[in-house]
């Protein structure tokens, strides 16, 4: 097929163009037996309890430093499974494409998805493509759903125990800061990259090391603050965090200073938080340090009963304050 | 801007050892104080620093903070927000403003609600982005709802200069720039607040010069220290105030000497004066009318003045706050957020009844977010 330059409405019409889009692009990059069987539904085999999740990705801009919407759509869904202790197996992928979208860009995105799938070994086994008139969506939306087999049970936001150690898998706030930079064209900090990454290998390392895990969650929208507050509330405990232990990239910190944001409120797409019994903390760190994306994992605090349902941040100079939930929309301060 | 410069913004001003040492020196030197120090931090940015870094916990009990009127979002009366909403609702209009203004409740609605209803309302990161938006939308009216103290005013003036230079005809200005000194005067003239020292916002003085605070010590017998916003800046300023008290001095001093001078940025001042002049009346939320406390466009620039051009759709009635909201009393330095009946219950950052709960620089918001542990 000679590739067209832009996606046209006919690519979603169900005829020849649709067919070639599916065969030459999606089947080519996502190739596996289940998908190529091209039945009305994928027939899957699972042996254990499964976890099932879905998410729609509408990020703008769709290309950003450190990834693109496709990489995000795979990492995001795979990570949701991994956070439940489930090995990601099968994914669906649906594309809603705006008429006129560049074919080359779509190809780049699909390639990035295929590339990202390798980190967990999950497969795309079914999908759907819609092309909608110009203006009906913003360039491209992707929905991915996923199924994974649970390898470790009992991980839950309700399971934090007094004495548990809180660990963060890497520095926080990079995805949110990177997107902000691109979106507002602020032109600061060239090498600020999103942390977008698949976390299954790190979770597998924890499971292999037989670490007990009370709770685990990727710090996506709402960032570290949101996860910690949800946990404190759901498990009715207090999380006492040492501010100086939380890793924050210098460029991210600079942006926060400039606009009055808090790095803890920024989204992450490849950083997760972990609550483990104190006796397993060192083991958990050792396991995380064997995996590239979590090699900076570090302990940031401990679960107590001091103030149920709240997160307390201790400064290095002896004062403390609450770390509150971020406000819905991040707006820069006025001056 | 390179990373190195970004780092310079905060590096060195949060060193734990320096903070601890300063807190200890302050504690030692306040032992001889005859009266409690009631320091008003005029600016919301300082309220934020004090709460966020838990500075009060490090200081002795005879130092108290009184939160001032220094947040442009907090002091915006409801009728001005209703103006913004009325402008945004006009056909073929894009309304631009800054940050938290989007969330502040007007009499019936807020810009955030109107945006969800379909109005084209955008929060800018830099006022100069307004040029691009106006050029990209030649068939639309673009209205800039300008807010802020002395700090942000030069940006609006710079924008006006560009609009004039480039001959842009579809960008209008609704000016809500306010001035710090008249507000401080109004609060002190009221005589109820027990303030015996001030921390002055450095951002304001970078533009206007520290000279704007010079009359305060003599007029009100209270020292003023013009302070930066990092924890070390604030602690150092407090120490300077304590020393003035101990030495029975009462002066204006500059802590933030890294960029504040007595005269300020003359060029910026001239540019502001070219386009704007003091307006006779401006109602401050909760405080009431303070004469000459805000700016408006000069008559020569009436063609850009949204208040004049769209006058027939702008409501004129002053609208007061909810009866339970004590923002006014807080802004006057007579109450603290937790004295408000609805603080943290009916009024939270996600569902604010008053503007002090909206802005990150508002006192209620700072108390709610960071609490007193
Ligand atoms: S506008 Fe200026 S004076 Fe007001 S809160 Fe912000 S920094 Fe302070
Ligand atoms: S808590 Fe809310 S209602 Fe009370 S003074 Fe503050 S903003 Fe007003």
TrEMBL record, chain A:
<dbReference type="InterPro" id="IPR016188">
    <property type="entry name" value="PurM-like_N"/>
</dbReference>
<dbReference type="Pfam" id="PF02769">
    <property type="entry name" value="AIRS_C"/>
</dbReference>
<dbReference type="InterPro" id="IPR010918">
    <property type="entry name" value="PurM-like_C_dom"/>
</dbReference>
<feature type="domain" description="PurM-like C-terminal">
    <location>
        <begin position="161"/>
        <end position="313"/>
    </location>
</feature>
<protein>
    <submittedName>
        <fullName>Hydrogenase expression/formation protein HypE</fullName>
    </submittedName>
</protein>
<comment type="similarity">
    <text>Belongs to the HypE family.</text>
</comment>
<dbReference type="InterPro" id="IPR036921">
    <property type="entry name" value="PurM-like_N_sf"/>
</dbReference>
<dbReference type="Pfam" id="PF00586">
    <property type="entry name" value="AIRS"/>
</dbReference>
<dbReference type="InterPro" id="IPR036676">
    <property type="entry name" value="PurM-like_C_sf"/>
</dbReference>
<feature type="domain" description="PurM-like N-terminal">
    <location>
        <begin position="39"/>
        <end position="150"/>
    </location>
</feature>
<dbReference type="InterPro" id="IPR011854">
    <property type="entry name" value="HypE"/>
</dbReference>
TrEMBL record, chain B:
<keyword id="KW-0479">Metal-binding</keyword>
<keyword id="KW-0408">Iron</keyword>
<dbReference type="Pfam" id="PF01924">
    <property type="entry name" value="HypD"/>
</dbReference>
<dbReference type="InterPro" id="IPR042244">
    <property type="entry name" value="HypD_2_sf"/>
</dbReference>
<comment type="similarity">
    <text>Belongs to the HypD family.</text>
</comment>
<dbReference type="InterPro" id="IPR042243">
    <property type="entry name" value="HypD_1"/>
</dbReference>
<dbReference type="InterPro" id="IPR002780">
    <property type="entry name" value="Hyd_form_HypD"/>
</dbReference>
<protein>
    <submittedName>
        <fullName>Hydrogenase formation protein HypD</fullName>
    </submittedName>
</protein>
């Amino acid at each position: 097929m000679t590739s067209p330059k832009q996606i046209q409405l006919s690519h979603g019409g169900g005829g020849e163009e649709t067919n070639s889009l599916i065969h030459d692009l999606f089947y080519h990059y996502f190739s596996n037996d289940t998908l190529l069987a091209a039945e009305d539904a994928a027939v899957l085999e699972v042996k254990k309890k499964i976890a099932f999740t879905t998410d729609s990705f509408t990020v703008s801009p769709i290309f950003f430093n450190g990834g693109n919407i496709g990489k995000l759509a795979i990492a995001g869904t795979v990570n949701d499974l991994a956070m439940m202790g489930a090995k990601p197996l099968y994914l669906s992928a649906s594309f809603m494409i705006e008429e006129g979208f560049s074919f080359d860009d779509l190809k780049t995105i699909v390639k990035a998805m295929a590339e990202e799938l390798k980190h967990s070994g999950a497969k795309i086994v079914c999908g759907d493509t819609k092309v909608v008139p110009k203006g009906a969506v913003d360039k491209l939306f992707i929905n991915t759903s996923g199924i994974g087999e649970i390898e470790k049970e009992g991980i839950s936001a309700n399971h934090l125990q007094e004495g548990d150690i809180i660990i963060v898998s890497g520095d926080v706030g990079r995805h949110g800061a990177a997107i902000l930079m691109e979106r507002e064209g602020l032109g600061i900090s060239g090498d600020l990259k999103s942390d977008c990454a698949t976390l299954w290998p790190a979770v597998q390392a924890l499971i292999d090391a037989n670490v007990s895990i009370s709770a685990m969650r990727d710090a996506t929208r709402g960032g570290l603050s949101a996860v910690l507050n949800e946990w404190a509330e759901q498990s009715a405990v207090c999380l006492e965090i040492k501010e100086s232990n939380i890793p924050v990239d210098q460029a991210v910190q600079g942006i926060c200073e400039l606009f009055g944001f808090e790095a803890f409120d920024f989204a992450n797409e490849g950083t997760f938080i972990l609550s483990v019994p104190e006796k397993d903390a060192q083991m958990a760190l050792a396991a995380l340090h064997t995996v590239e994306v979590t090699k900076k994992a570090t302990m940031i605090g401990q679960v107590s009963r001091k103030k149920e349902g709240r997160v307390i941040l201790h400064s290095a100079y002896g004062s403390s304050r609450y770390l509150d939930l971020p406000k819905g929309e991040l707006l820069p301060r006025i001056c | 801007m390179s990373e190195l410069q970004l780092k310079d913004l905060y590096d060195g001003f949060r060193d734990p050892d320096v903070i601890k040492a300063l807190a200890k020196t302050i504690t030692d030197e306040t032992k001889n104080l005859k009266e409690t120090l009631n320091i008003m931090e005029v600016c919301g940015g300082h309220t934020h620093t004090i709460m966020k870094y838990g500075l009060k916990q490090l200081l002795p009990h005879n130092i108290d903070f009184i939160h001032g009127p220094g947040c442009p979002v907090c002091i915006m009366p409801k009728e001005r927000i209703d103006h913004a909403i009325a402008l945004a609702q006009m056909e073929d209009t894009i309304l631009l403003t800054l940050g938290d203004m989007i969330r502040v409740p007007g009499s019936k609605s807020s810009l955030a609600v109107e945006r969800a209803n379909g109005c084209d309302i955008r929060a800018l990161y830099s006022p100069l982005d307004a040029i691009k938006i106006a050029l990209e939308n030649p068939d639309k009216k673009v209205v800039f709802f300008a807010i802020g103290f002395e700090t942000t005013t030069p940006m609006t003036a710079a924008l006006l200069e560009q609009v004039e230079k480039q001959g842009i005809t579809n960008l209008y200005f609704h000016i809500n720039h306010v001035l710090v000194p008249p507000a401080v005067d109004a609060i002190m003239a009221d005589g109820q607040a027990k303030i015996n020292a001030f921390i002055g916002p450095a951002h304001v003085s970078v533009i206007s010069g520290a000279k704007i605070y010079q009359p305060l010590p003599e007029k009100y017998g209270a020292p003023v220290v013009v302070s930066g916003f990092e924890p070390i800046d604030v602690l150092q300023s407090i120490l300077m105030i304590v020393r003035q008290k101990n030495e029975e001095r009462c002066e204006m001093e500059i802590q933030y000497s890294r960029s504040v001078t007595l005269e300020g940025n003359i060029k910026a001042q001239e540019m502001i004066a070219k386009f704007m002049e003091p307006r006779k009346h401006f109602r401050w939320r909760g405080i009431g009318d303070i004469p000459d406390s805000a700016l408006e466009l000069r008559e020569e620039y009436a063609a850009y003045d949204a208040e004049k051009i769209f006058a027939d759709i702008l409501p004129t009635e002053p609208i007061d706050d909810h009866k339970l909201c004590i923002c006014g009393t807080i802004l006057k330095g007579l109450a603290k957020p937790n004295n408000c009946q609805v603080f943290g219950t009916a009024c939270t950052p996600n569902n604010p009844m008053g503007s002090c709960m909206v802005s990150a620089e508002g006192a209620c918001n700072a108390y709610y977010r960071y609490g007193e542990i």
